[in-house]
Amino acid sequence: MSTDQDVLLTRREVERRTGLSRSTLYRKMRDGTFPVPLKVSERAVRWRESDIRAYVDSRPRSYGETAT
Q1: What residues have CB less than 8 Å from 14, skipping those under 6 apart?
Q2: What is the pTM (predicted TM-score) of this model?
Q3: Which of 17, 33, 45, 50 could bond to 37 as cystine, CB 3.0-4.6 Å?
């Protein structure tokens, strides 16, 4: 679901948008339940905004609600 105009997000921005901690992000990536980032340099990664938006949209909105 990415486009050529996709914004790239830092880990801190991803944490803020998802409400997940750093360790939870990396655990979920390892489990295959969270989008993996792009490596943009030797020591930096970024996530596509569209991937994070799709992840957030797939989550239940409130307790007891199922994801669409």
Answers
A1: 20, 25, 47, 52
A2: 0.81
A3: 45
